[in-house]
Structure to design on (535 residues):
């Protein structure tokens, strides 16, 4: 038992630094899962090792039905079958939740307690996450379809790590005293901004919960969070644990429900002081407009991407293939920062394509609860159909389909790891965010050319560079217009590293010191000094 825990700890610390291991070639072929090239049907789904406990809305510290009494089903991506019926929030529920958050902000203890007291509650929450990690990981995989090993060994430990990071900030947030041209004592106070509205997506439900809730709570704000309709379960479970840790009622309210109803009501609300959103660029524009038309609440947006992964000619091709494979296929390709344009230097291009294909054929796809599975199903029918449409578009536009291109099994949303070579910049598959297991490999000749092509997109979320040439690496990291550039690594998400987009990939940054700014109001206090002689 002790040995097992030690191994788990060691693994989770590794995975915290990077999710790399998950794509490792060491993964054995789990029984019933398949290397996708074979046509075998998938086995019957494994019974998830967890039960669903919370399905109601969380308002003012209580689980309650929605005002309408309506519910909606959350589905198992492995089968499309119903996991549970969850209370469906709409405008009236958002109003109740905002009123509760308002009261907790205006009258409650949370913004008034010391930073140290807040940090103690956030640290207790992190301990409870670790204690309940099996349930959290089980729910996350069941609702989302991602491999259980990824949930358990990477995401849940990252969740507690993020809350410990923000617990550390709680008692270190302070303003400044600044000099002025005159007999004035000038203080710049950093105050919580008020009621934060937060809308999160389905691809990393727990991590998005942490990126939003962590900084808002550290700064003393209150929150109404709307989870994604595809994955409502873990936010409710985590919020319950946060209350167990001592969070006062009304500080965090969680509303499950759909975007155009509950989400829009939150973005549009006159009594919400700040909005944070992660999702598609299209929806980002809608919520920004709602925020502007209502009360001009400031908005942070983390949106889509079409990130380049650039392999230079000095690359060790085997390593480059593995990294580019991970950069694209991780999380079923459902990452806003997925390295979805693999640019490979012409000198190593053919070898790269051949090896990338072999790697994709080795990828273990299957029931995400099975050990060793690297890829589960896509989240839902809509995303599945969208990815399949893009695969067709790739074939029709003349790209070479090297591997995959089809679904796996006849139930649920499994897609074969798919690779296109000879992809041209103007093809739809090279321009649009596919959000699925489809790798597009493009050829380039020189560095200036690849910089121009990599930047020729409306997106600017992330980029990857693979080289051991320091000068070329420096040139690329400076020239690429993206919020994150990973050199010889990808998807490294430390709590202290800021994340966010250039251009249409977003506004503002999450994680790291910059994330606190999103949740602070700045107040200048200017006091006249009676005795200017002391200036
Ligand atoms: P995706 O297309 O990947 O599901 P979305 O941007 O549609 O991404 O969804 C991200 C989050 O935004 C989800 O919580 C969703 O419910 C919410 N959402 C969708 N449409 C709207 C909207 N019109 N107003 C507010 N929130 C929305
Ligand atoms: Mg679901």
């Amino acid at each position: 038992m002790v040995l097992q825990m030690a191994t788990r700890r060691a693994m989770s610390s590794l995975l915290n630094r990077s999710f790399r291991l998950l794509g490792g070639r060491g993964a054995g072929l789990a029984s019933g899962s398949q290397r996708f090239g074979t046509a075998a049907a998938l086995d019957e789904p494994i019974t998830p090792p967890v039960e669903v406990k919370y399905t109601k809305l969380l308002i003012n510290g209580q689980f309650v039905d929605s005002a309408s009494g309506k519910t909606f089903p959350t589905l198992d991506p492995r089968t499309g079958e119903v996991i549970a019926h969850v209370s469906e929030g709409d405008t009236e529920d958002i109003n109740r939740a905002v009123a509760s958050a308002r009261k907790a902000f205006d009258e409650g203890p949370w913004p008034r307690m010391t930073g140290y007291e807040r940090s103690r509650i956030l640290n207790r929450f992190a301990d409870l996450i670790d204690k309940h990690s099996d349930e959290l990981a089980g729910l996350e995989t069941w609702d989302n379809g991602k491999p259980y090993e990824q949930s358990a060994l990477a995401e849940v430990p990252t969740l507690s790590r993020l809350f410990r990071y923000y617990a550390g900030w709680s008692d270190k947030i302070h303003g400044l005293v600044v000099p002025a041209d005159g007999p004035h004592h000038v203080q710049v106070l950093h105050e919580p901004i008020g009621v934060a509205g937060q809308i999160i997506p389905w691809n990393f439900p727990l991590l998005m919960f942490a990126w939003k809730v962590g900084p808002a709570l550290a700064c003393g704000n209150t929150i109404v969070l709307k989870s994604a309709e595809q994955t409502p379960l873990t936010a409710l479970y985590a919020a319950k644990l946060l209350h167990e840790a001592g969070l006062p009622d009304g500080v965090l309210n969680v509303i499950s429900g759909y975007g155009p109803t509950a989400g829009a009501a939150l973005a549009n609300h006159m009594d919400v002081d700040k909005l944070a959103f992660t999702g598609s660029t299209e929806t980002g524009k809608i919520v920004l407009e709602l925020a502007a038309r209502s009360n001009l609440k400031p908005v942070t947006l983390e949106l889509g991407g079409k990130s380049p992964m650039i392999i230079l000619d000095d690359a060790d091709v085997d390593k480059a293939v593995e990294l580019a494979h991970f950069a694209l296929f991780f999380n079923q390709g459902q990452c806003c920062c997925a390295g979805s344009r693999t640019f490979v230097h012409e000198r190593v291009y053919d070898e790269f394509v051949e090896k990338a294909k072999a790697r994709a054929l080795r990828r273990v796809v299957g029931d995400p609860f099975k050990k060793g599975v690297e890829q589960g199903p896509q989240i839902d029918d809509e995303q599945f159909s969208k990815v399949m449409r893009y695969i067709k578009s790739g074939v029709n536009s003349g790209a070479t389909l090297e591997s995959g291109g089809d679904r796996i099994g006849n139930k649920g949303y499994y897609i074969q790891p798919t690779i296109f070579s000879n992809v041209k910049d103007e093809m739809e598959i090279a321009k649009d965010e596919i959000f699925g297991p489809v790798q597009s490999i493009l050829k380039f000749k020189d560095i200036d050319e690849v910089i121009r092509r990599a930047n020729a997109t409306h997106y600017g979320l992330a980029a990857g560079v693979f080289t051991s040439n320091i000068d070329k690496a420096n040139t690329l990291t400076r020239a690429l217009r993206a919020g994150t550039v990973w050199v010889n690594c990808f998807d490294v998400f430390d709590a202290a590293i800021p994340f966010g987009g250039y251009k249409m990939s977003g506004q503002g940054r999450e994680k790291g010191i910059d994330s606190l700014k999103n949740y602070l109001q700045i107040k200048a206090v200017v006091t006249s000094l009676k005795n200017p002689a002391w200036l």
Observations:
- The chain has two domains: 34-303, 308-490.
- The longest strand covers residues 184-192.
- Residues 308-490 form a domain with the Aldehyde Dehydrogenase; Chain A, domain 2 fold (CATH 3.40.309.10).
